[in-house]
Specification:
The protein has 216 residues and is an alpha+beta fold. It has six helices and twelve strands. β4 and β5 form a beta hairpin.
Length: 216
């Protein structure tokens, strides 16, 4: 069944390892160790360009994309440039973050090159008070721990109404990914009611999937 592209974009994909540290396979332990040494950069970016790199890459099952984004606001790490060029690998094709004009991007700097932290991003939009905020991140809240649980979703007044058209996406699944009262579902559309401001969106990931992957 063909699903609406925007629904797939807003489903914030992540890699999660559900085991204790001691039971993790060695290759995952190495992956987490490498991430702990990585120079993480988090910022709000505005899309300038994204193109597919057809050259052979080391990740045979992923497509490789070269992205260029304008740095609008730094959230974590030191960024001294106003534009960043980075590489993104995606198993499903064109990276979902590229469908939005403005996103929070999570990059790691390795050997002076920026690499996208796979599948991690938050779409963000301007609010009436000229801040940046994003829709309620369902999966991040599912994975929150005692620290990030201090962060609560709030009603956000965006400059423009954000409505997700999920088309023929099954309503039962839509209600799981866009739960009430954070989203208001009417027929095949979900209106964003709740969300979080940019810094809290980052903190949810910091104490959730970023911690799981070993960055913190």
């Amino acid at each position: 069944m063909k699903k609406n592209l925007l629904v797939l974009i807003l489903m914030l994909n992540y890699l999660a390892f559900g085991q204790s540290q001691d039971s993790l396979p060695d290759f995952i332990k190495r992956y987490r160790l490498d991430n702990s040494r990585a120079d993480l950069k988090v910022f709000i970016g505005e899309k300038i360009e994204l193109k597919k790199d057809i050259a052979k890459n080391d990740f045979a099952f992923d497509e490789k994309y070269i992205s260029k984004y304008k740095v609008l606001k730094t959230i974590y790490g030191e960024i001294k440039v106003d534009t960043i060029v980075f590489t993104a690998f995606d198993h499903y094709g064109k990276p979902a973050f590229s469908k939005f004009k403005h996103v929070i991007l999570y990059l790691k700097k390795i050997d002076n090159k920026y690499i996208h932290c796979k599948y991690l991003y938050n779409p963000v939009f301007k609010t009436i008070n000229d801040s940046w905020a994003g829709p309620y991140p369902t999966r991040d809240y599912r994975k929150r721990n005692k620290i990030s649980s201090k962060i609560k979703p709030e009603i956000i007044e965006f400059k423009d109404e954000i409505v997700i058209d999920f088309g023929d996406y099954p309503l039962k699944e839509a209600r799981i990914d866009f739960p009430s009262p954070y989203y208001q579902i009417n027929e095949s559309k979900a209106k964003v009611i709740y969300g979080n401001y940019a810094n809290d969106l980052f903190l949810l990931k910091k104490e959730g999937i970023l911690k799981t992957r070993g960055y913190f």
